[in-house]
From TrEMBL:
Function: Specifically catalyzes the dephosphorylation of 2-phosphoglycolate. Is involved in the dissimilation of the intracellular 2-phosphoglycolate formed during the DNA repair of 3'-phosphoglycolate ends, a major class of DNA lesions induced by oxidative stress.
Binding-site residues for Mg(2+), renumbered to this chain: 13, 15, 176
Pfam families assigned to the protein according to its UniProt record, in alphabetical order: Hydrolase
Pathway info: Organic acid metabolism; glycolate biosynthesis; glycolate from 2-phosphoglycolate: step 1/1
PANTHER family documented for this protein: PHOSPHOGLYCOLATE PHOSPHATASE (PTHR43434)
Molecular function terms from GO: metal ion binding; phosphoglycolate phosphatase activity
This protein's record includes keyword DNA-binding: no
Protein name: Phosphoglycolate phosphatase
GO cellular component term, pick one: cytosol
InterPro entries (UniProt xref): HAD-like_hydrolase_sf (IPR050155), HAD-like_sf (IPR036412), HAD-SF_hydro_IA (IPR006439), HAD_sf (IPR023214), PGP-like_dom2 (IPR023198), PGPase_prok (IPR037512)
Organism (species): Halochromatium glycolicum
């Protein structure tokens, strides 16, 4: 893909792209494990496990594996504990990444239609965006339970395109993980990734997005003059 481009709509992922939510998620995972009489997992492990919703995170925490499937009885006991903890700690330790506020301000000043598409459930997404002061940046927020399917399905992206009446070929997805890339490709969107996200510990360049940026604030520059590294 050749840059610069002028998308009619920009959809932005939440965890790992706008917000570092791992400190809160780690607190909740370790507190859950303590209640279950199990050892803490720690932040390094949680950073590699996030990105597919809290249900998968709980299963991974119980098994200690990215691909692990927890015992159904253990999972049924653990999930309500985690949800209770995360309800009270959604934004206690989470922070915006450097450059996010400046980047969003530039995009809004440029007149771009902005949406947030995340796999996080709405009951956590909305309070987190509000607490961090960026909810008003987005005309539409699509959470993991807003529609029957979530990323890597293209359904949330295409739903947003319909909302803005923008053709997929004129739309852009900004994310941090292979799920974002897969969803964008399936929807026919351009896709740019940040280098600092989660992506289960793997270099996002291996997923072959159209470009990679090191700071959210670089997005505006890429769109206007093409100054960024193509993946």
């Amino acid at each position: 893909m050749q840059f610069p481009i002028t998308p009619g709509m920009i959809l932005i992922d939440l965890d790992g792209t706008l917000v570092d939510s791992v400190p809160d998620l780690t607190f909740c995972v370790d507190a859950m494990m303590a209640r279950l009489g199990r050892p803490a997992r720690g932040e390094a492990a949680v950073r590699e496990w996030v990105g597919n919703g809290v249900e998968r995170l709980v299963s991974r925490a119980l098994t200690g594996s990215l691909d692990g499937e927890a015992d159904p009885a253990d999972y049924a006991r653990a999930l309500p504990i985690f949800l209770e903890l995360y309800r009270d700690n959604t934004a206690a330790r989470s922070v915006l990444y450097p450059g996010v506020v400046e980047g969003l301000d530039l995009l809004r000043a440029g007149g771009y239609a902005l949406g947030c598409v995340t796999n996080k459930a709405a009951r956590f997404t909305e309070p987190l965006l509000e607490s961090l002061g960026i909810r008003d940046a987005f005309e539409i927020v699509i959470s993991g339970d807003t529609l029957p399917e979530k990323k890597p399905s293209p359904v949330p992206l295409l739903h947003a395109a319909d909302h803005f009446a923008v053709a997929p070929a004129d739309a852009l997805m900004l994310g941090d993980s292979v799920s974002d890339v897969k969803a964008a490709r399936a929807a026919g969107f351009a896709v740019i990734c940040v280098s600092y996200g989660y992506n289960h510990g793997q270099d996002i360049r291996s997923a072959k997005p159209d470009a990679v940026i090191d700071s959210f604030a670089e997005l505006g520059q890429l769109l206007t003059d093409g100054a960024a590294r193509v993946a």
